Amino acid sequence: MQPFERFYPRSILPPENFAGSAAAHPWTDMASARGYCWTVLTGSSDATGMILRPQQARDGSGTGVKDIPGKVVTVTDPGTDNRAHVIALLPEELDLAAGYRFARLRIEITGGTTVNMAAMLLACDARFGSAAEDKPADVLAPIY
């Protein structure tokens, strides 16, 4: 089994300076895999505040957006360079009874002039077929 059959990027926030702003991954349908993992990488940073806010919605346009309980992270050292923040999510942690099945990560940065960051959502263990078969357009073909 190739690693891409188990783990695959579902969405990407490309490296950019996010100082004093907010950014969010596109909405992703959480029904296609058994688990997910957001990884946020910060390079140089002089931010005074950073919140990583996993959110859920009923559809891909963000209907009924709300935070995922227990998943919001207030970063305690936002001005520290070269950090990785990882947030795991299982589809059953969404409010499935109310019709929520889409998720995204919203990143909110306060202060600073340089907050170099990139983020990626990895799908883990696709429910049907290989995870690589359901890749977004901004992910190039896997190299086996």
Task: List the main descriptive attributes of the protein structure presented here.
mainly beta; 6-stranded antiparallel beta sheet
Describe the structure.
0% of the residues lie in helices and 49% in strands. It has strands at 7-17, 22-24, 28-29, 33-45, 49-57, 66-67, 73-74, 83-89, 102-110, 115-126. The protein is an all-beta fold. The protein contains no helices and 10 strands. The chain is globular, with a radius of gyration of 15 Å. A hairpin with an 8-residue loop joins strand 5 (49-57) and strand 6 (66-67). It has one domain (18-126): Jelly Rolls (Sandwich), CATH 2.60.120.
Summed over residues and divided by their number, the pLDDT gives a mean of 87
Cα(first) to Cα(last) distance is 11 Å
Q: Which percent range fits the helix content?
A: under 10%
Q: Which structural class matches the secondary elements? A: mainly beta
SSE sequence, one letter per element: EEEEEEEEEE
